Amino acid sequence: MLTKEQACERVHDIVGRARAAGADASDAVFAADRSLSVSVRMGALEDVERSESEELGLRVFVGRRSASVSTSDLSTAALDALVERAITMAREAPEDQWAGLAPESRLMHGAAPQLDLDDATEAEPQALKQRALAAEDAARGVSGVTNSEGASAGASRSMLALATSHGFTGAYGQSSHGLSASVLAGPTGAMERDHASHSARYASMLEAPEVIGRRAGECAVARINPAKVASGAMPVVFDRRVSSGLVGHFLGAIAGAAITRKTSFLLDRLGAQVFAKGVTICDDPHRPRGLRSRPFDGEGLPVLPMKLVDEGMLETWLLDSASARQLGLEPTGHASRGIGGAPGVAPSNLYMEAGSIPPETLVGEINRGILVTELIGQGVNGVTGDYSRGAAGFLIENGEITRPVSEITIASNLKDMFLALTPANDLEFRFGVNAPTLRIDGMTVAGA
């Protein structure tokens, strides 16, 4: 794995070559990754995978025309050919009046924040195998579990570097560790499946394999013999396993591209109340060891913690430089990019703040409703906000979680759902996007 200094040299060099070859401006991304994963099933090793890659992407501008190219061949001859090809392509591309690098005055300068994203450990196959075996053994040890889809453990380290022709060069490394288990419970012909997983920057932060496995087994067993549900309007409680999905739909609606194309159900709602007054949604790129922490965005701009929603009020769009120019606004430091193509937008560690009500109270106030633990399908219209998804979970009766349910559909409109949303006080930081347990009253539930 290259050091940060070596990665910076790679992108700085290719940007310089592009300028020397006739590009008016350019930027480049370098990504190196090394990963190892081990899968087991029924107590036996099933698969070991190891991958290593190094890729470089170059974007050049000739006037208002641009082109992007990428390569995994980093030899001198290949990079020279890459530059020539990119400039030739850019000269033939259509003009885009909004295209260009980020404003030079906004670039990050000085030392990047220290976010502690790399534990600098190299995983060994045997250690990952034992971790996966322990998780599956714990899952299969739960009474009622009858089969296994297996368990897997993995680890990776990566390095990302970015350089622009107008003055930014930066790089950062990160590590990632993960563990998951999936099992089935119940008799043949009526089995129910569930899983559990955990990811962390540091191996030492992973939950114990026995905890993950036992959770997978218990979740699967709890789903045995699902009941039928009569259709109607009722409260729906979104478990923390799925509640972050609602925040994800919100993100899609405030992305700069959706606003410039006028394809968002929140169009023209900037500065207006779009959630219930007790709801605040934050983005924190500086969270130490966060799964989506980063010292700068995909265009070299500094990133800062901010509130996207404050007490229900929509405070900002997510903007890269191109969408910001088109809207007459400033970029927000949310540019995100891969090796190829122009930047898009993405949050960092996004979360909905915890409310003040325990989840037991949210459930206890419901006479008849549904606790959703799994969502199925993609039935969400980002233009209108119409929401209709398959779901599974548990029936709530007289304030108690009772029988499992499956093959149901929950439906409403996201605009109404956001305004009717009540967050519980049980926020945990387990994913890149996190939310507490959420209750939404008055959703339409269609049973079998």
UniProtKB/TrEMBL annotation:
**Pfam families annotated for this entry?**
PmbA_TldD_1st, PmbA_TldD_2nd, PmbA_TldD_3rd
Positions of the Metalloprotease TldD/E N-terminal domain = 28-90
Q: Which residues form the Metalloprotease TldD/E C-terminal domain?
A: 231-447
Q: Which Gene Ontology CC terms are recorded?
A: cytosol
Domain of life, per UniProt, equals: Bacteria
**A biological process from GO:** proteolysis
GO MF terms here are: metallopeptidase activity
Domain named Metalloprotease TldD/E central is located at 122-223
Region of interest: Disordered: 131-151
Q: Which family does it belong to?
A: Belongs to the peptidase U62 family.
Entry protein name: PmbA protein
